[in-house]
Amino acid sequence: MKKMYRQWLGIAALLCHITMQAAGNKAVVTGTVKDTQGNPIAGVVVTDGKNVTATDRQGIYMLDTDPFRQPMVYISTPADYVLPEKEGVADGFYHYQDTSKVENRCDFILQKRSKQTDDFVFIPISDPQAKNEAQLDRFRKETVPDLIHTADSLKSLEVVGMGLGDLVWDAMDLYAPYRKIVSNLGLTMFQVMGNHGFKLLYSDMERTADPENGYGEKNYYEIFGPTNYSFNIGKVHVIAMKSIDYEGKKKYVERFTEEQLEWLKKDLSYVPEGTTVFLNIHAPVANTTVEGGDNVRNANALFRILRPYKVHIFSGHTHYYENTLPAAGIYEHNIGAACGAWWAGHVNRCGAPNGYLVVTVKGDDVKWRYKATGRPADYQFRVYKPGEFETQKQYVVANIWDWDIAYTVNWYEDGVLKGAMQQFDDEDQDYLTMKKGKRTGYHTRHLFRACPSKQAKKIKIEVKNRFGEIFIQEVEL
């Protein structure tokens, strides 16, 4: 009798599966969002990565879904509530659906903040990109202690971290140890998916004919959750999106799919125009260095959606540092990689040091400064004496990685102001030295030079950023 009962259960499950597939896997997910006291929370945005809705006055939501294509349901945490996390890694804001059911229930509980604050620190970290245990150990021993020190220095402020993709280098077995490494750092760590984050054998979910047979994001999903999501903190709406259209076996195109862009429109429909938005992606949208490009192909479609907002885009992928203003109200920070040039040494292809960005937010006021791994916070540029930069032997050269058009760069000879340094385009000497002199053609535009006189004894370089902060280095000749 028991054997027959089990057989009937198996047949029923199979019929349910067949029925869902015949109906295009149509299903519904319902649930509630409440606080820790059991009070309903209205207006919380809920999504499965395609469809989007919000909770009603009773904290109830209902969402049409396809649990095979959209395996998770998740919320955009409101600013009045603590960001859900487990051991310092974002967690608990998503639930998996049961693919055997045509109706799922997913409930969420949020903790009300004890005090509302508009001030916080946001730390994007690009491309840890560990290929093996040795590289992961460098991240553990170099980047992480520096990050902990930075977070500890900001104890009075809430700190949110964001891994900008390529957390590992095609090594799915390193996802779990990576998560352990970024746990309990004194911040809440979120993640973005990069091109090296997919399981090589499979294409991504949208391209996969039958997700049950495997898809590229599966390992990432299991460790970190969804790839297109949002949350709110202070006055800022934070978004993370996959900017890689993955075909499988290392073939991909940097672009957003139409489904992703539609999801972004729906997500932003709940955000008032004029709000500050932080968009976190892996591949950049506007890197102008041809050799380091790899930009998202349909960036203009993205810009049209973002037009009503004040936007900062944080990206990685290139292992180049470049700041750009690609459209009105949009500033892209294509930051240096934590691994630099793939753990070959201590600099990126443009000469920017391994590191991460520290973004200080006070309401709608956003300021930032790059933090070089193992260096003091005010280390914002590198100086080469005459003779040290192979192609510029007569010049003092400065590599100012966080440069943008609002910077001023002046130089002094023996205490006398000589004027602005000349910007030029070349390969960085520190990178070339790391590569044992082998030229690669990777030019950068954040290089500046000045030609001192033969009698000069001391050169001072004064760099002022867009916030009026001044950084000075002096060299004896």
From TrEMBL:
Residues 332-471 form the Calcineurin-like phosphoesterase C-terminal domain. Residues 31-109 form the Calcineurin-like phosphoesterase N-terminal domain. GO terms for molecular function: hydrolase activity. Residues 1-22 form the signal peptide. Residues 164-321 form the Calcineurin-like phosphoesterase domain. It holds the Pfam family MetallophosN. It comes from Phocaeicola coprocola. Keywords: Receptor, Signal. It comes from the Bacteria. This is TonB-dependent receptor. SUPFAM superfamilies: Carboxypeptidase regulatory domain-like, Metallo-dependent phosphatases.
